[in-house]
Amino acid sequence: MFIVCVAACPTGIAHTYMAAEALEVLGKEHNWEVKVETQGSTGIDNEITLEDVERADGAIIAAEIAIDGMERFENLKTLECSVADPIKQSAAVYETMIHIINN
């Protein structure tokens, strides 16, 4: 399974990168291929491409702000959550994403 993710918080520093790391760990734990884009004070890093979106099974948007390029995910099954959720509740994020993809 391939999941694209975006992590973004208002300042785009600590929580953005903590969430990105948590999403990568979540992917490894469940044998998902994961690509995590971060949006923050330094701009966009590891940008998700159109090719990434086309082959993705779903998207996780862990953000406290409106993200740039949200329209890229309009045809994907998408979980929108708090930037803290992957950090503090990774099991719930996993279970919810599986439920969304399978329904």
Automatic annotation (TrEMBL):
GO terms for molecular function: kinase activity; protein-N(PI)-phosphohistidine-fructose phosphotransferase system transporter activity; protein-phosphocysteine-sugar phosphotransferase activity. Gene3D superfamilies: 3.40.50.2300. It is an enzyme of class 2 (transferase). It catalyses: D-fructose(out) + N(pros)-phospho-L-histidyl-[protein] = D-fructose 1-phosphate(in) + L-histidyl-[protein]. Keywords: Kinase, Phosphoprotein, Phosphotransferase system, Sugar transport, Transferase, Transport. Its EC number is 2.7.1.202. Residues 1-99 form the PTS EIIB type-2 domain. The keyword Methyltransferase does not apply. The keyword Iron does not apply. It holds the Pfam family PTS_IIB. One of its GO terms (cellular component) is plasma membrane. GO terms for biological process: phosphoenolpyruvate-dependent sugar phosphotransferase system. This is protein-N(pi)-phosphohistidine--D-fructose phosphotransferase. It comes from Photobacterium frigidiphilum. The lineage of its organism: Bacteria, Pseudomonadati, Pseudomonadota, Gammaproteobacteria, Vibrionales.
